[in-house]
Amino acid sequence: MDMPMPSGRNQEVEVITGVQRRRRWTPEQKLEWVRRTMEPGMSVSLVAREAGITASQLFQWRKAYTEGSLVAVGANEPVVPASELQEAMRRIKQLEAALGRKTLENEILKEAVDFAKSKKLDCALAAVAQGRPMRTVCSTLGVARSHLVAIHSRPADWTDRRTARNHRDDGPVLEDIRQVVHEQATYGYRRVWAVLRYQWGCRINHKTVYRVMRDHGLLLYRHGQRPVSTRKHDGKVAVDVSNQRWCSDGFEVACDNGERVRIAFALDCCDREVMSWVATTRGIDAGLVGDLMMQAVESRFGANQTAPAEIEWLSDNGSCYTAAETRSFARSLGLKPVTTPVHSPQSNGMAESFVKTIKRDYARLALRPDARTVIRQLHSWFEHYNTQHPHSALKYLPPRTFREKQALNN
């Protein structure tokens, strides 16, 4: 039975018989449909039905038209989203503000050129006096604002009392300093202060000693800085307890008649006391090193005694220290022979520093006509070092005094 056709006008139906690609619309078509939605009596849904598109798609085109995208597409111009445009405008404002600050800083620096011979703080004061913002001036010139405010607010009659002190009592201090320098010409202001403070009982500050010695030309000559070694040394020679590690090394003293006195010593790596020493005009051999070890053990633990606990014996790789005879004798005394790496004087730095001190403070100032005279003076040198010489690592106390205080505390 045939179905009756509905009355009325004929309707066109689009029949899709195959797979088609996504429909494309030209910018002109999009603009035409969007503009029709803005005509009186028209709506988005009505125009969408007439054009055969969805209302949501037409809404998106209308929104893009409002933001200007469709106009740009129609004119073949690049399309910029509104979010990117807003970000660009914000960035432009930031750059304009930064440009203004840099311009102000540039003007401040140009004005500071006229005061280049003065201090940086004077430049900042001059810029602030001309009406420049204090915060900007301080950040540009790298000046502390609190310091600049304090100086800027000072009265006109302000004076620095630190430089206006009256040093009328420097006379007695100067006499004491001259006496110490006369006895020990190689002492710097720190060691002079240590002698006055701890050995003479003078209540004095090391800064006062430095000032007096500076004003009267008593400071030592400052030598050029030595090149820094590139070899890295991570170890630590010093120890916290006495009789835990001893170090040893040798050096020689030249005499006026051409003779040379060769000296070896044993030093405690905690209290820095010279426990024993040997001297000869020949070479230091294993026998002398053995005598050195025996004297060191006897000075600490008594005659015919050995070390109650194993003690490290630190030395370089000299033949007198590495000989089998020396190492065997050291073990019989309770010592443990330890040698430094080759070409690493830093590993035995405490002994090297002691050699420098003996040569600087004693050997260079003493009479050295011949070897016999030098050997006679060695006992007084080492005794003065143990009992009188201030040591910076021992809070400027002599080694023996430090050891006695350490024994009382323990």
Automatic annotation (TrEMBL):
One of its GO terms (molecular function) is transposase activity. Gene3D superfamilies: Ribonuclease H-like superfamily/Ribonuclease H (3.30.420.10). Keywords: Coiled coil. The keyword Phosphoprotein does not apply. This is IS3 family transposase. SUPFAM superfamilies: Homeodomain-like, Ribonuclease H-like. One of its GO terms (biological process) is DNA transposition. Residues 223-406 form the Integrase catalytic domain. It comes from Noviherbaspirillum pedocola.
